Amino acid sequence: MGKMVAQTEIKSDGDVFHEIFRHRPHHIKNMSPGNIQGCDIHEGEWGTVGSVIFWNYTHDGKEKVAKEIIEAIDEEKKSVTFKVIEGDLTKLYKTFIITVHVDTKGQNNLVTWTLEFEKLNEGVEDPNTLMDFCLAVTKDIEAHHLK
Q: Exposed, middle or buried by CB within 10 Å (0-12, 13-18, 19+), for 25?
């Protein structure tokens, strides 16, 4: 399994950021319309482990889709883990897990993205541009909340 981790500091409220990914990911399309075009619940309820979410997004200039299951939620650590079960990423990776974690310390809020992946073959590149995408969405959400 490959693993990539990236962190970025945000000036907006870390609790709000976590709450968006847990309970309101469907609002992200309004905050980062260039990256996220849609987010719908397919099974279960928002903010519940086992729920299935369908995303429409633009990555590397191409419209893509992903169906993800919420694998874990940790309120104490402010983390949400999504496992990709269908969509464009499954054409390249056997397994793809995305965790977004918010560390709140006073005025400093640190967002950590962890991508865990198993490539279908050696020719598949590491998901560097997808990590850039996650960080760009983070900055869009931050900018939206600093308005």
A: buried
What value does the mean pLDDT take over residues 11-25? 92
User: Based on the structure, what is the number of domains in the chain?
Assistant: 1
User: CA-CA distance, 111 to 55, in Å (whole number)?
Assistant: 21
What domain range is 9 assigned to? Answer: 2-146
Give the pair of three-digit tokens for residue 41.
Answer: 């619940």
Q: Sorting pLDDT into bands at 50, 70 and 90, what band is 13?
A: confident
> How far is Cα of residue 77 from the mean position of the Cα atoms in its chain?
16
pTM value is 0.95
CATH code where residue 98 lies:
3.30.530.20
Q: What is the DSSP letter of 90?
A: G
From the list 119, 132, 88, the residue with the least C-alpha distance to 1 is 119
